[in-house]
Design goal:
This protein is α/β, with parallel strands linked by helices. The protein has 16 helices and ten strands. It starts with a helix and ends in a 14-residue tail after the last helix.
Length: 435
């Protein structure tokens, strides 16, 4: 564990930075991670691992500001504690290779305590309904009197206290901390106050004494799935109820380069698909598929509106967003609780991000260069790199096919370069919609 003297030095340094006392004059860099459950967390880890390898001049464990929402808060808290993307991949994706494995199955443990509390409330609720009916049988009616029994329905199906317990153990390792005030970098975990509907920045002044592990649990308490998390008399639920990315939390703290990852986008089944057995119409997938598409469409639409506003409110900031494509069947239909699926999705996100960085390098290079960040083209050009351990060696492609692929990439690269040459030199790179 850190000594008291060391913790005091770190806390003092953090307080000075938050008060705006000048230090290094380089532009601030921030990271905003949206939610998406275990599925989104694995996708974000694959994306972060690719960015960490391919970009030079940036350390993802030493950014100025971290903002995490729901599952993104899980990852943000780890990065702010110095846990690298590669190590978190071993922890969450390849659990058998890490001494602190996380099993997503802990999120499926029934909320027995919540069940017991609600069951205990049934007798007095029944008695109250009975007396309410007797006091005004014509006015209330039977159904009106029984409405109060809705209070006996559990507020969540599964127990998410396992998140708090796991992170408390993980952050007890020497060099890490479960205290916002002892972090070397700013961390904000967004939750929603159930009683007011307001978004709360856990980790900001007034809330920084709350344990990081508890804040992550509160930020990820998706209503209906998990019970609200009570902290000092307030009940908190998932931070995505108000916004998806909460990028403004970092931007209003003078961040000049914000990297964002949003793992959930609506799936367009009309586009070419990776899976031959993907339903042509999503309604064929039943209620889970319909609900997943509805949820993704709602939050993505909200994010687009938010990002357009950020461009107006923070014109001096560069925002670079990474997210799946609309035809990403791998992301939409993956069963995250399958160990093989977790490995496959992490690798998919890793390779997708590598491909995107290579294709957009001419567009992104001037944006990132303004903040001292460059590309490692030797990494991006290495087709043999993989994130997760491969159990079988892939068959080498035919020489002819490889040559054709290289020619196609070169022509595509030339076309992009010529298009960029037509633009004015200082025109900012187009930003993807999101927020």
């Amino acid at each position: 564990m850190q000594s008291a003297k060391l913790r005091g030095v770190i806390a003092a340094r953090t307080r000075l930075r938050r008060r705006g006392i000048p230090g290094a004059q380089r532009p601030k860099i921030g990271l905003a991670l949206a939610g998406g459950g275990p599925l989104g967390a694995v996708y974000e880890l694959g994306t972060l691992a690719a960015l960490d390898e391919a970009l030079e001049g940036i350390d993802f464990t030493a950014l100025d500001v971290y903002v995490g929402v729901s599952a993104g808060g899980f990852i943000a808290a780890g990065l702010a504690n110095g846990v690298t993307p590669a190590e978190m991949c071993r922890m969450f994706v390849e659990s058998d290779r890490h001494e602190e494995p996380f099993d997503p199955a802990v999120l499926l443990r029934p909320a027995f305590r919540e069940y017991a509390q609600r069951i205990a409330s049934v007798p007095p609720l029944l008695l109250g309904a009975f007396w309410a009916y007797l006091s005004d049988p014509l006015g209330r009616g039977v159904y009106g009197a029984l409405q109060r029994l809705g209070r006996a329905i559990p507020t969540g199906v599964f127990d998410n206290r396992g998140i708090d317990r796991f992170l408390r153990r993980a952050f007890a390792v020497p060099g890490r901390t479960n205290d916002f005030r002892e972090l070397e970098h700013e961390l904000y975990l967004i939750a929603t106050d159930l009683d007011s509907g307001a978004a709360v920045e856990l980790g900001a002044p007034g809330t920084e004494h709350i344990p990081i592990s508890t804040a992550v649990q509160a930020s990820a308490a998706l209503p209906g799935l998990f019970p609200p998390v009570e902290i000092e008399g307030h009940h908190y639920v998932d931070g995505a109820l108000k916004k998806t990315l909460h990028a403004s939390v970092a931007l209003k703290r003078s961040v000049r380069l914000l990297l964002g990852i949003n793992p959930l986008v609506p799936f367009d089944s009309r586009l070419p698909r990776a899976y031959a057995d993907t339903p042509k119409r999503l309604v064929e997938g039943g209620l889970p598929t319909v609900l997943a598409q509805t949820f993704r469409a709602m939050i993505h639409s909200r994010m687009q509106v938010g990002m357009q506003r950020y461009e107006t409110d923070y014109p001096d900031a560069d925002i670079v967003l990474f997210q799946p494509n609309r035809d990403d069947a791998e992301m939409f239909f993956t069963n995250i609780f399958s160990y093989a699926s977790r490995r496959r999705l992490a690798e998919h996100a890793y390779q997708k991000t590598r491909k995107e960085l290579f294709e957009r390098r001419h567009e992104l290079a001037p944006v990132l260069a303004r903040h001292g960040i460059g590309f490692r083209l030797d990494i991006l050009g290495d087709s043999h790199r993989h994130l997760v351990k491969r159990h079988a060696r892939p068959r080498a492609p035919l020489k002819t096919k490889a040559a054709v692929d290289r020619l196609a990439r070169s022509l595509d690269d030339l076309e992009r370069w010529l298009a960029l040459r037509e633009r004015t030199p200082r025109t900012p790179a187009p930003r993807e919609a999101g927020g």
